[in-house]
Write a structure and sequence with these properties.
Order of helices and strands of chain B: HHEEEEHH
Helix content of chain B: 40-55%
Shape of chain B: elongated
Number of helices of chain B: 4
Number of helices of chain A: 14
Distance between the termini of chain A: 66 Å
Structural class of chain A: alpha/beta
Largest sheet of chain B: 4 strands, antiparallel
Strand content of chain B: 15-25%
Distance between the termini of chain B: 58 Å
Radius of gyration of chain A: 27 Å
Oligomer: heterodimer
Shape of chain A: elongated
Order of helices and strands of chain A: HHHHHHHHEEEEEHEEHEHEHHEHE
Radius of gyration of chain B: 19 Å
Structural class of chain B: alpha+beta
Number of strands of chain A: 11
């Protein structure tokens, strides 16, 4: 009878060992991701350094010996750095798997957007400074020099057109943020950036001596362009098309979850091979009349069970309203899965999931896909009324299954207060810390409308959470 | 980015730029307006036997060469003006003449320079005098490239070398 006594302690130690093993595993994966990220970032810095080095190796420093050449020197440098960063922008938008796995596709695009304006300024500086610099060398005023370039010099007329296209691309991108343009128009204009890149290419090889025939630099520069354009072609065209053909997705059912909210379930071949995780998103294209020319990014709303994929969508735009009319059997092509709003970004064992409205659907999916021990997760759901807490029953069942705490905050926000809480919770003095006491040593996953998400992030940072613990997926309405 | 990685990225970038600087430093020296510096820096004419006993290297490159050499000319190239070959480049053809006097290159005359477009003309006008003064200092066609005028420089030197060969000038 005494032999039964040590058993529980053995089991307890085993449990503890497993727990620390998991902790170590998560930490290891996180460190590896950090390292990858640093490496990729270093490559970006190096690419700029290499271009500057090539300029210097070609004797670029001589431009800075006399005052009249300085303008030309700076003009060449801005052009070089500007086009290098433009290629970086292309690569960031190319959906390259290693970038997605390390930073997440949405973060990569955020950096892409950040680079847009500086790159345009660099290219414009390149143009104006050389108009002035070469103008000085030839005794022409800058305008006359520009006309001379366009009329007399090889490949310069198309280079000027390229600058015009680039201006159009950046300006439409800045305007669409203010929601003054239709997405389709922006998209068409954005495609012009490929035209801009190709039209600007010849003059880089024929006008400057840096990339002249017979130089190593010429091969390097060509390789950069070929690499960037090839990665776009491979990861944005070839792979999505091949994947869509292979998996042969079809709509299997369309279910109404709430007024204006539908779940679309799709089945296909080899769904497991997609390796999709709850919390990831795809860009979907439904091959139905009036829908096929439009592709939309929607997150999964359930863990892929190997047979089917499900999304849950609210009719916010005209695209999502049409989903209601989808017939079972409709073909679906897709790009994805993308994003690291998943276990891939975990830094520790515990997790807190916060979702609002339609933002609950990815939260529900990531909860289902996540590797969690009992009592390690807290789920907080927000809706302005009970009906807005979408998929609430499913989420509740998952919380029961995983022994996670669930808090549901229903109702409008208090008037005149900048908070993400409902008026009721706010008046009771609730906060992130009271709702999720373990939050300080947890990963925090947030999904909801941008302003609301920003408020949750603000509160989390006030509690002392680090950036690497906070994973936010913002919805733009 | 973590501090350590940022440090490495910074140092690495600096090293890359430094290598580029080092690679280009020759052109920088040779482009200095007073080509005295380049004589020590880049002129790699191995044998300068003819200049050993006459130290008056022409520093006044813009005016006509003084040619005040009193050194006896034993054997070597005959005095005269020698045509160089016509060299084709993407920016137009280049041809120069070498003027040999008293066993030295006293002048290089550009017969034709790159003129495919106005920028090429501007470049030639800028580069040719520089190359010429380099050549007169080094007394050979082996001088450093002038950045921003690679084509002109190389074609100029190629044409000059053929002129020197025709003259039997060995430096």
């Amino acid at each position: 009878m005494t032999s039964t006594a040590p058993l529980p302690t053995k089991a307890a130690t085993r449990r503890n060992n497993v727990a620390t093993q998991r902790e170590t595993q998560i930490k290891k994966r996180y460190t590896a991701r950090l390292r990858r990220g640093d490496l990729l970032e270093t490559i970006v810095y190096f690419s700029v350094a290499i271009v500057l080095a090539l300029f210097l190796a070609d004797g670029g420093a001589t431009y800075f010996l006399s005052l009249k050449d300085v303008t030309t020197g700076i003009g060449i440098v801005t052009g070089l750095v500007g086009s290098d960063l433009m290629l970086i922008m292309l690569i960031l938008a190319a959906r390259i798997p290693v970038i997605d796995r390390t930073f997440g596709h949405d973060k990569a695009l955020a950096v892409h957007r950040k680079l847009g304006k500086p790159v345009l300024y660099l290219i414009l500086a390149h143009m104006f400074l050389l108009m002035v610099g070469y103008g000085i060398a030839q005794g022409l005023n800058p305008i006359a020099e520009a006309i001379d370039m366009i009329v007399n010099q090889q490949d310069m007329s198309i280079a000027f057109i390229a600058t015009g296209l680039l201006i159009a691309v950046v300006v439409t991108s800045l305007v669409i943020v203010r929601r003054k343009l239709s997405y389709e128009f922006w998209y068409i204009v954005h495609l012009l950036s490929y035209g801009a890149i190709l039209l600007a290419l010849p003059h880089q090889f024929t006008q400057g001596m840096m990339f002249a025939e017979g130089t190593w630099a010429r091969w390097y520069w060509m390789a950069l362009y070929v690499g960037a354009l090839a990665s776009i072609t491979i990861f944005r065209v070839i792979i999505p098309v091949a994947s869509s053909l292979r998996h042969d997705l079809r709509v299997s059912s369309v279910d109404i979850e709430a007024p204006g909210v539908v779940s679309v379930t799709m089945t296909g071949r080899d769904i497991n091979a997609l390796r999709a995780q709850g919390g990831q998103f795809f860009t979907w294209r439904f091959w139905a009349p009036n829908m096929w020319w439009d592709a939309h990014p929607y997150s999964l709303s359930a863990h892929p069970d190997g047979r089917s994929l499900r999304i849950t969508v609210r009719d916010l735009g005209k695209g999502s309203a049409r989903l209601l009319s989808l017939k079972p059997g409709t073909r679906v092509s897709f790009e994805g899965p993308y994003g690291i709003f998943t276990d891939a970004s975990r830094t520790t064992k515990k997790a807190v999931f916060v979702g609002a409205g339609i933002g609950i659907t990815p939260i529900r999916a990531i909860l289902e896909s996540s590797d969690l021990d009992p009592l390690e997760a807290t789920v907080i759901l927000r809706g302005s009324d009970a009906q807005d807490v979408y998929l609430w029953q499913e989420t509740y069942d998952l919380c029961v299954e995983k022994s996670a705490s669930l808090r549901v905050l229903v109702g409008h926000r208090p008037k005149g207060v900048n908070t993400w809480l409902s008026a009721e919770a706010y008046s009771k003095g609730e906060s992130l810390l009271t709702l999720a006491p373990q939050i300080k040593n947890s990963d925090l996953y947030i999904c909801g409308p941008t302003p609301w998400t920003d408020l949750v992030v603000r509160d989390a940072k006030r509690l002392g959470l680090h950036d690497h613990q906070i994973h936010a997926e913002r919805f733009d309405f | 980015m973590r501090a350590r990685s940022a440090f490495f990225a910074g140092m690495g970038s600096a090293a890359i730029i430094a290598i580029g600087w080092q690679a280009g430093v020759g052109t920088l020296v040779s482009a200095l307006p007073e080509s005295q510096a380049s004589a020590s820096g880049t002129s790699n004419s191995a044998s300068s036997a003819t200049t050993s006993n006459s130290s008056t290297s022409t520093t006044d490159t813009s005016a006509a060469a003084p040619a005040a050499t009193t050194a006896p000319v034993a054997s070597g190239p005959a005095d005269g003006t020698y045509d160089g070959s016509v060299v084709n480049t993407r920016f137009g053809t280049v041809q120069v003449q070498a003027v040999i006097s008293g066993g030295k290159i006293t002048d290089v005359i550009a017969v034709k320079l790159t003129d495919a477009d106005r920028k090429s003309i501007a470049i030639s006008q800028q580069v040719a005098p520089m190359v010429r003064s380099e050549v007169l200092t080094a007394q050979s066609a082996h001088v450093a490239n002038i950045s921003g005028g690679t084509y002109t420089t190389q074609a100029y030197l190629q044409s000059l070398q053929s002129a020197l060969d025709a003259a039997g000038f060995t430096g």
